Amino acid sequence: MEGKGSYSSIQSAIENASDGDIISVSRGTYYETFVINKSISLIGSGAEKTTITCKNIDGGNPIIRIDADNVTIEGFKIISPKGSMKDEVFGILVHSDNNLIRNNTITNCTYAIYLEWGFEGTEISNNTITNNQCGIYIYLGSNRHAIFRNNISYNSYYGIRIKGRNNQVFENVFFHNNLGMYMCCGSADNIIYRNNFIQNKKNAKDDKYTNLWSYNGTRNYWDDYSGTDSDGDGIGDTPYQIPGYGNRKDDFPLTEPLPI
């Protein structure tokens, strides 16, 4: 592991780092949990080569906690030794603004990525989020995040659950989740577009009337859309109804999956 020197643990490298530093983590498996309290970049050697896990973790705790703004986490496989709701283990718990979480695989957690109340501006992109209970949870008062180009699959509760406002969710694949995407009653003014919803038990649910399911003419693909495409333009002739109290619709559903 390299930062300003070589270290035997990720936490020790963080403790010796300064804001703006890049910590490069060598391939291998690291058995630890840690807190990032400085504006640093933590870069692994790729999710297939660099694993972060732990032999034991108490319920309600994260494997990685981000407490500083402007943190990057990239190139890791993050695995919890537990994964039941009663254990409540977080893969990455975000308690700050303007972070970047990309090119990771996160699995076997209660919440793979949890964005806490009162924080904004985190980008979550190009991750594989699979076999968790909830993939990504954006809590009430957590706003203006961007979630895109993630593969979100086999999560037993939700692929994404949102209570916040003004978030954008686009170019993701939701595959084989219990519920692909859930917009809770506290959510508002979120935009969901250019996503593929495939083989989920339920593709989506929206309990708020101000979320948008298309944007500037860009739409989503729903594998259970039953409408027709009479002119063959790839857009359904009738809207796709989103279940839930919000009575929302994708007005121009695609009839073929997007090349994401």
Please describe what this structure looks like.
Helix content is 2%, strand content 36%. The radius of gyration is 19 Å and the shape is elongated. It has a single domain (10-222), classed as Single-stranded right-handed beta-helix, Pectin lyase-like (Pectate Lyase C-like, 3 Solenoid), CATH 2.160.20.10. The chain contains one helix and 27 strands. A nine-stranded parallel sheet has the order 2-5-8-11-14-17-20-23-25, with no helix packed on it.
* Main beta-sheet annotation: 9 strands, parallel
Order of helices and strands: HEEEEEEEEEEEEEEEEEEEEEEEEEEE
In CATH, the architecture is 3 Solenoid
Distance between the termini: 34 Å
Number of domains: 1
Shape: elongated
Indicate the structural class.
mainly beta
Poorly predicted residue ranges: none
Name the CATH class. Answer: Mainly Beta
Name the CATH superfamily assignment: Single-stranded right-handed beta-helix, Pectin lyase-like
Q: Specify the helix fraction band.
A: under 10%
Mean pLDDT over the residues:
96
Strand content: 35-45%
Kindly identify the CATH topology. Answer: Pectate Lyase C-like
The radius of gyration computed from the alpha-carbon positions, rounded to a whole number of angstroms, is 19 Å
What is the β-strand count? 27
- The side-by-side strand order for the widest beta sheet comes to 2-5-8-11-14-17-20-23-25
| Annotation field: number of helices | 1
